[in-house]
Amino acid sequence: MKAEKRKIKTKKQSTEDVSHIEDVQDVNRIESDESSSEDDDVDLTASRGVQRERRRVEGEKLARTLFVGNLPSWVTKRRLERLFRRALRTSGEAPQTDCSVESVRIRGAVPVTGGTSKQARKRASIMHEFAAGENHTLIAFVVLTSKQGIPAALKLNGHWLSDATSQPATESGNGRHIRVDVCSRQNSSFKTGRSIFLGNLPFSVNEEQVRNAFRRFGEIVNVRLVRDSVTGAVKGVGFVEFSDPSMAILAVRGSDNLEVGGRTVRVQFWKSMKKAKLRKGGDSGGGGGGRYLG
Fold it and tell me: What does pTM read for this prediction?
């Protein structure tokens, strides 16, 4: 009888021990889950913090980054760096000596073979191989060390960039009027009130041809052509911005039968073009799918 009681007691203790072990395991599991959850929360918070800091750094860098368009195919990073350093050094609006050029990136090289891989584009940039030949337009991004140099750098908008380094630059030979703007602007700096829209442009046209055709109507501030994002070819449309709205009026009224590159160009006010686009439900008239590369 005593042996049976002892066996029952031992069995009860064994059951209690197992139950206790299971309870401890459950507690450990809960604590582990809570700890893991806390770690996940910490990781998530840290990740969000890292993302916020990355966005802040990228935004700060974008605020001092300049877009440079309509660059000739022969331009080099060193040439652009010298140009912007000189502009920062000689401008009265940037007397500080600590503002300089941090980096220069040139884009727009399209391999002759039509390849779009990173390696193919890199080779095309190094070897100066372009699908559109010598008339191909490059773009660049110039990062300054400080936002204070932006006003001085913007004075280079419309600057004639020539391959002649030893003699005074004149608007002849192998050169381009470059376009300089701030990358951080959400909208283009083009002023619609003094700009015109161009249609039916030749696919082989370049900015200088358009500028030469319309300079008779007044001082031109900017010329932009819509280009294919892969090949860099002109999509047949573009814009011209004048220094005064009256010049845009003259251009629209006086451009009947005006030819550029052997084709009669369609000219209208940019505002009228935008209203027509809205009425058609956003149809871009053949200019969609591209982007401004110069």
Answer: 0.62
